[in-house]
Amino acid sequence: MGKQVFPTKGNLINTKKTLNLARVGFDLLDRKRNILVREMMTLIDSAKTIQEQIDDCYSQAYLALQRANVAHGVVEDIAASVPVEDGLTLSSRSVMGVELPIVNLEPRPLELSYGFVFTSALVDEAYLKFNRVKTLSAELAEVENSVYRLATAINKTQKRANALKNIVIPRLTSTVKNISESLEEKEREDFSRLKVIKSKKQTTP
């Protein structure tokens, strides 16, 4: 139950201003939600495309690895010579106040870190395929994390918009109506009172 607002012209003006602000706030939140939804749907399409590429690339990479294992035995020692990736950096971009991650994997020329004496093109192929998987995984991590953050922001924005639309605006509208009716009733009473006083004055000798 909201606090009773005393029916005065000042309160009517203030309540109307608050109501207008609430309506503007709802419009802004609705626009923000629409923009975030469009951004999220675009990213969802990107995530689907990248995931399909990763699935295909993983299949090719593991097939290449199996062939390399068959040709050279288990290539664990060879794999251990590949340096750990340390070129991953994180930054962010803002969409309607929502911070979205940017995952940047520094492009580097591919340099084989193992010797050629005990390896073959089969090992090279597996290495290149898994390197592609690494790049795609970084892209997918960026997109999926962005989708999660956008979904969270959309949910919060929707709740705030709903609160304005279904609670705040109707309550303020009702308050404006009640104050206006009270003031109109008071004006009618004052007008009637003045007529009675004027009538009495005219009939008084």
The name of the CATH architecture is Orthogonal Bundle
**Poorly predicted ranges (pLDDT <50, ≥5 residues)?**
none
Total of DSSP H or I helical runs spanning 4+ residues: 3
CATH class descriptor name: Mainly Alpha
| Average residue-wise pLDDT | 86
Order of helices and strands: HHEEH
- Report how far the terminal alpha carbons are from each other: 54 Å
Largest sheet geometry: 2 strands, antiparallel
Give me the secondary-structure category: mainly alpha
> Strands of the biggest beta sheet: in what spatial order?
1-2
Briefly characterize the structure.
A hairpin with a 2-residue loop joins strand 1 (88-95) and strand 2. This protein has 205 residues and is mainly alpha-helical. Helix 1 runs antiparallel to helix 3 (121-203).
